[in-house]
Design goal:
This protein is α/β, with parallel strands linked by helices. Helices cover 40% and strands 22% of the residues. The protein contains nine helices and nine strands. It has a seven-stranded mixed sheet, sandwiched between helices. Strands 6-7 form a two-stranded antiparallel ribbon.
């Protein structure tokens, strides 16, 4: 990383500001990479521990909130983007006729396939390794798409929404956890150049720009009742409900 040196009149101190800047950038980059390997896209031993033990307990209240909000029906065909180890699909969508999960972490996909082994064998589920910005399904494939605990880490949220919109059939619904409730004065920004923090009006504008209608934003407490979930929870969960418009009637 190139750093522009700022000169100082003090002898021997001409490079100090650039050294501080370099150190700060190095620490920021280290924190960002650690966060990604731990919880963003779990990888390595630390990622395995997070995927196998931490995330299932930390996200349990999120799964419950999403299960209540999604209104899943037996005849739905559901895609969960960033499905993690498959807990939501296994425990909150077991009654849904067909389910699919996608995750960018091979650790998570492996765990999800183990958890969903019976449904995979029966042909009523699939779990794939892939990127939300390039979903491996045809247009109009699913009646519902969910995403939770991950959207704020997507590098290109607009591309993710475009793909979610594409694979939803007309009249299909997206139920997305897009971050947490933010203070009224919050400006949309990224933390550590990785995690998005959105103002509510920017969330609405982003979802509508993707083509969705009937956009509704609500907030749900997800503190849960375990020590870990209480420790790790923050402001209320932001849930976004949106609908892909039905195709126009051909005269």
């Amino acid at each position: 990383m190139a750093v522009v040196s700022m000169q100082s009149s003090a002898p021997g101190r001409g490079t100090e500001p650039s050294v501080i800047a370099t150190s700060r950038d190095a620490v920021t980059g280290l924190l960002a990479r650690a966060a990604q390997s731990w919880a963003g896209v779990p990888s390595g031993p630390l990622g395995w521990v997070c995927a196998r033990w931490v995330m299932p307990r930390w996200h349990a209240p999120i799964y419950t909130a999403m299960g209540a909000a999604a209104g899943l029906l037996p005849d739905d065909e559901l895609l969960e983007v960033a499905c993690g180890s498959g807990i939501f699909l296994a425990e909150h969508a077991s009654h849904v006729g067909y389910v699919a999960g996608l995750d960018l972490s091979d650790i998570q996909v492996g765990l999800a396939r183990q958890r969903m082994a019976d449904r995979l064998a029966a042909g009523t589920a699939e779990v794939v390794l892939g990127d939300v910005a390039a979903l491996p399904w045809p247009d109009d494939r699913f009646s519902v798409v969910t995403c939770m605990g991950s959207f704020e880490a997507f590098p290109d949220p607009a591309a993710a929404l475009a793909e979610i919109y594409r694979v939803l059939r007309p009249g299909g619904r997206a139920v997305l956890n897009i971050g947490e409730q933010a203070a009224p004065a919050t400006q949309t920004h990224q933390m550590l150049d990785v995690y998005w923090v959105w103002a509510e009006h920017d969330v609405r504008a982003m979802v509508e720009a993707a083509g969705f209608t009937d956009v509704d934003i609500s907030y749900v407490d997800y503190s849960g009742d375990t020590r870990l979930s209480k420790l790790m929870s923050g402001p209320d969960l932001r849930l976004v409900h949106a609908v892909k418009p039905t195709a126009p009637t051909v005269p």
